[in-house]
Design brief:
single chain, alpha+beta, 4-stranded antiparallel sheet, about 35% helix
């Protein structure tokens, strides 16, 4: 089974440029967790599944730490999820910076990581 939290939006201070650190930017994060959900399907009990509020809270905590690189933030998110949510078999993270400052119109730049 998998659960996906799609396009959680955050304002954060991630980037190498000074104005990115001062003003921040908008970011989208999608997280997919793969796990055995068979017990939850029968029990209808939150304790038998993955609590996606916990996923959201972990993502929010990690993205709110100032960083230079998307790669670093995605790595921290996946590591924190692995440490705090033990029922998961596999994680996939998609982290996007909207309107990156590249000197021309670019919708977003995205980093994918799995573990």
């Amino acid at each position: 089974m998998k659960i996906t939290l799609s396009n959680m939006e955050f304002h954060a201070f991630i980037g190498c440029l000074q104005h990115e650190k001062a003003l921040g930017n908008q970011f989208l994060v999608s997280v997919t967790v793969f796990f055995d959900g068979s017990k939850a399907q029968e029990s209808d009990n939150l304790e038998d599944t993955i609590n996606y509020q916990q996923i959201y809270d972990i993502v929010k905590a990690e993205i709110n730490k100032e960083s230079d690189l998307l790669e670093n933030v995605a790595f921290r998110i996946i590591n924190s999820l692995k440490i705090n949510i033990l029922k998961a078999d596999k994680w996939e993270i998609e982290l996007s910076k909207l309107n990156p400052p590249l000197g021309g119109k670019t919708e977003k730049v995205t980093v994918f990581i799995e573990g």
